[in-house]
């Protein structure tokens, strides 16, 4: 099957990157991408996860398949790639197809921050909560661009109104400086759905921030 | 005349919907649409009105005609379809063609909330004020999509900078749960002016919220 | 050289406008435009400057030339057209090509408000700071549309994520009523990069606000 | 009524242009515009008409009004502004609302060239037929941009698939050099529906060609 | 599996339409759609096929699955829904993933008209060839919008440069009047990739032509 | 100066490509790009040139500079990189800034084919003329995407109505198989001006054709 084969190929590639001590920062592609990346870099020790996203991506299956953009977090927990106690999901919202995703999250102990809770906590509160959840362990950052509000990221497959503002996403990332970041990605950017270019510009900017975080972390690990 | 005839035809159609006890949720179309809908559903008892809009739509005439998107609120008050004491207009702003619209609003007692006042009150204050004004009586909700800020709704005929953010519009609607909603609409969406699709996505989302409000209200009226 | 010649021609034109006592409100065009305008209207007495912009425009040279959109503020200070003590720059942010620009600003005493400081001060604090810096002297207002966040102004050459919201820009301008405004401009609007039209709509709206400010100031100077 | 008043105001303005011997080249605006222009410049002697358009614009009334973009040719013939024997309409096609328009054209003798006949004649044949119909008398050229195929002019209100290619429109106009052109216009361009800008570019180019035709004609009339 | 289930559901629905003697005209959706439609209407007697498309859709499998937009013609021939001797494919072109598709077509006798052959034959020649191939038997018409040139249909998933012009597609369809059309469809239109709207406008227009063809055919079958 | 420095850097890079016997196919970038490429690959022996373009690019200077997109052909002839007797320019048209460009072309013997002559010759005639002009010598192919009609390439800086159709550009390139192609490029593609993506799709397709031409030529040179 082609999806499984793609996942295997991606995993092989990232194992080479991981072998040289680099922290991969990737740009997707659909939100299945983090799974093979985590297989490559978190195989020896489960990672924490900071996930900016409107969807939890913890369904057991989605439209009849097990490996896709709506299931990767669950697969990664099941495979022991993520430590569920060190996973935080920020920006959850939107219409739902069932409760299987969040039920699973509650069961294994993912920290799920809906937009309502996000607003109640405020930006500083959210940053503090992220730091509390992932603490000092190795941490991966995944950004589904649909975590942003559609006015900041119209160029994506499943936009969900009422999301995180770009300025806040920037500031949240910057305030994570010092965490032990082992990699990151930005997924679900679709340039063909982005006539103004704003989604690409914002995604590039967030990738820049991720790269800075990873650079600081690598520097720390070396010293 | 074609506009008058269209209004009559729309009214006839909505009378059939009203007759079976349904609460119509409509998507326009120009902001004349609520007038025939109100004739159908508020004929027996004047309704309250929650109006999210950048314009008050209370001119006596506009470009030489009496029935159009800039006059429907005044016509509805004159015809006894709306109880002016139970009308609240949120998001008013923009350059003006004259004072006739707001003068009328003051005269008959409409509650007009400009963007400046909206900011001073805060979202929670606005929600409380809406609930105070419309209270327990039957209430119609009309959303001119230009009530939103143009970055949330560029696809409309008369965008006015400096408006309501989509997240706030969502939350205002959700907090109206429990009011006696008898119908609602979203007007002035122009897909041909919406190359990113954000206006359509946001309008569909607000329609979903309206439908939830109406469903709860119908359920209450039945029990 | 064509740029220098264009600058000279623009200066000549504005001198005629200035001669009749008018306060020019211009729409650009690249952000070199304010330089010849200031030469025409601030030749006799250095002006203060309120600059909404993501870039300081104070490099000494940029891509090998001295007169361009990245150097105009420095040139104007050097030529004695601006009083550096009465210059305030709001919205500074973004990736940088060097420190030469902000180093210069610090050296001559420009008041540089980055987005981080902007957030800390809040809108009311920024308005108060503007009024403190420019005080009662003659003041020019220049708006690089990229000072706004890209969702409010995607149609520009160098969009920088995480900027000023349109509503705030409107309110900042309105609260400057009463200052001695001698002219203003909005630059870097690129309609061909603006498929939704929002950049043009917002720019037109800000120009309307600038015109009101200048009208009040002219009226005051006459009385 | 506002439409009638607008038509009167436009007519007054063009009378001043006509009085100084100029041949007005206008850009619309809806296709009602040629009526007041013709009143100003063809009042003394009926003009011939070269009309590139997908619609004949010869209905008696349209949506209940007499003066609009679907009736202007009929009104102009009735008012004696056009000599029906010297009118040629090129590019007619599309779904229809009735036969009243083409029935009228047949009755008064307009030369109607449908797209099918256009293809049969070929470009050179069409040019020859235009020259035969309008001959040496004073002639007005009106271009409804929807006469072009939608791929050459998507930015218009009523695009009709299967129309004239831009290259052919250019060449037809150029081959009219030497006719006694007394004015012309390009109508129905809607920039907000033109995200690629192609409609505006093509309209500007055709306006350039019209201007050249008028310049040659004025030069001839003077000598 | 969801695709197979969708196909089954679509087939059930079309069987009801077929049962009342209607000729279904459908708009897709991906180019798998014709398969269940043909199962419903060609189950008793194999149909002929007129296919306007840049791809032959005759692969045996595509990306690991058997039922999709790149295989439907082969599946329909295998299932006896199409008479391969009465299938004609017009507009074939583009880069290829293998020869399996056209090899199959040659083997079972499909009439494949590439763009090169299309140009050599000319529009009238193509129309004559279509009539010769499908002759008097029941015939289905399927249009993959990517058969058109991208300038006539940018809003599709796999645009292929150098295709059929819209005017020609219109005229080909019109000249098929009198054939025994039993249904038709237009697939692969993607509004989100169509910021100018031209793809939707052209698709709607072709659907109108298809409907006319089917109406004439139904009328003939009844008399 | 930065332009001269960029040109030098590009030339150094291409010299490395040329040194290994490869035929570079480049995508620009502005139409200055071919100059350093030609310096790298045609230094030893002047090349012929097939140029698809709406402008001749043979001005002596343009807006005060010598090295830019409007002068590269002239510079290349002057530097002995091109054999003027083996240069053919196809698709010339549009408004002009002066006659200096075509005067130069006539003087040194460039074969200039305007759109009018292109139409008179027909596609086959143009192909024959190209083969006659460049004959068997080493030949470079440069495509300014504005040589295409704007409906095939709206995403460019200086679109000129009435140009070459994409299908014809494809076929012209394919018919050049067998010429001694030493390299090629496609310039002036601007993705930010291409909301439908058609310019990028067509440019990628032409690049594919160029690559095929070069591959055949390299294969021939090796045998």
Largest sheet entry of chain A = 6 strands, parallel
Proportion of beta-strand residues of chain A: 15-25%
Report how far the terminal alpha carbons of chain A are from each other.
44 Å
Secondary structure: helix percent of chain A: 40-55%
What is the typical, i.e. mean, pLDDT of chain A? 95
Annotation field: number of helices of chain A: 7
The total of beta strands of chain A comes to 6
Order of helices and strands of chain A: HEHEHEHEHEHEH
User: By helix and strand content of chain A, what is the structural category?
Assistant: alpha/beta
Radius of gyration of chain A: 16 Å
The largest contact between protein chains, plus residue counts on each side, is: A-B, 15 and 14 residues
Q: For the largest sheet of chain A, list the strands in their spatial order.
A: 1-6-5-2-3-4
Low-confidence residue ranges of chain A: none
- What is the molecular shape of chain A? globular
Oligomer: homohexamer
